[in-house]
Write a structure and sequence with these properties.
The chain contains 12 helices and 8 strands.
Length: 370
């Protein structure tokens, strides 16, 4: 059997950069249509859907993600111009306006032939990788001259991402009094997933690697730190989801003698509603109940090192035989997704997707629980 090619070593010519994000509602009337998009194809009881809607309603139906994505687009436009790369930046969302089909139609009208796509998800999972690739494939259907889209590789261990998030965590630690700072554990948080899906993806291993790299960058490689999870409210069906939940972890740290803790949302590149509600509201309420000081690190957002990482990933795909920057022991992630990359964990055949090899005739059995 011939090994699948995972890296693109050609000097590709691009005429646009496409930023692909999750999207979020921007008013009360958007919430239910937005959730219809998010939950399409899932058998979520209506009562559970209403419960999710109430979380958005606590914030007037507005998620911060769209504003953050627009800020990233503006930062990338400025950085590309300063770097002398004449690439217009488009934005398309999976679940809310501007939706991917509308954006690709606009790109077709503008004569874009080939674009590099940066997906605002740094770690490999079905929802963070293959689902976006499926949606990009679907968005191009029906277009007469759809642009070719090349998805850029994961940036979880890129020096730019690690430097940016290390600085965010360092800033959070600085808010703790100096005499207690070294004893404060760091709880790195990421979105929980069904365990069946996580077993078929590199998600957890990539998160652990990134957490270790940030801890090393802080000069605290042996300090108390943990990977914990949030947003388990999104659970559907009988499957177990990744844990521990951040609120349970706070109680455990309190019982272990912690007086302060830093929450570091390493699994998110910008503030989603989940970051704000799960951490700034619900985790903070739990910390106050426990009598433990809590500081939340900012997401990387438009940190210059993170914006520079995106430019570096674009340049890689425009350069023959590039040097791919990566820290840690896992090496650079792939340019072209293998055929068994990040399946959903649900039965049945997968959907066609851009940026990778064709689906296998049947998914292999997942590895045993780690």
């Amino acid at each position: 059997m011939t090994a699948e090619r995972l890296f693109d070593d050609g000097a590709n010519r691009y005429d646009a950069l496409l930023v692909v994000s999750f999207g979020g509602p921007e008013g009360p009337e958007d919430v239910m249509p937005f959730l219809d998009n998010v939950l399409e194809g899932l058998r979520l009881p209506e009562a559970a859907k209403r419960a999710v809607a109430r979380r958005y309603e606590r914030f007037g139906g507005v998620s911060p993600i769209n504003a953050h994505t627009r800020a990233l687009v503006a930062a990338l436009e400025d950085a590309l111009a300063r770097a002398g790369l004449a690439l217009p930046v488009y934005c398309g969302n999976r679940n809310w306006h501007p939706l991917l089909p509308d954006t690709l139609r606009k790109m077709e009208t503008d004569g874009i032939e080939r674009a590099a796509a940066f997906v605002t998800s740094t770690f490999g999972s079905y929802n963070g990788c293959r689902k976006y690739r499926e949606d990009l494939h679907a968005a191009a259907r029906g277009l007469e001259r759809p642009p070719q889209i090349d998805k850029l590789r994961y940036g979880y261990n890129h020096p730019g991402f690690i430097a940016a998030f290390t600085e965010r965590v360092r800033d959070a630690l600085a808010k703790i009094p100096a005499k207690r700072r070294d004893d404060a554990p760091i709880l790195f948080t990421a979105h929980s997933l069904p365990e069946a899906a996580a077993r078929r993806a590199p998600y957890v291993e990539q998160l652990r690697e990134a957490c270790a790299l940030v801890a090393a960058g802080l000069g605290r490689p042996g300090s108390r730190r943990r990977l914990v999870f949030q947003s388990r409210n999104a659970r559907y069906g009988p499957d177990d989801w990744l844990g521990p939940d951040v609120r349970d972890a706070l109680a455990e740290e309190k019982s272990n003698g912690a007086t302060d803790v830093v929450l570091a949302p390493i699994g998110f590149v910008c503030d989603h509603l989940e970051v704000v509600l799960d951490l700034d509201v619900e985790a903070k309420e739990r910390a106050d109940e426990l009598g433990i000081g809590m500081v939340r690190a900012a997401t990387v957002g438009t940190h210059p090192e993170f914006v520079g990482m995106v430019l570096d990933l674009v340049r890689e795909r425009m350069t023959a035989d590039p040097v791919r920057a990566a820290l840690g022991s896992r090496g650079p992630s792939h340019d072209l997704c293998p055929s068994d990359c990040c399946p959903s964990g649900r039965p049945g055949p997968g959907k066609p997707a851009i940026g990778g090899h064709p689906l296998p005739p049947a998914w292999p059995d997942p590895p045993p629980d780690r």
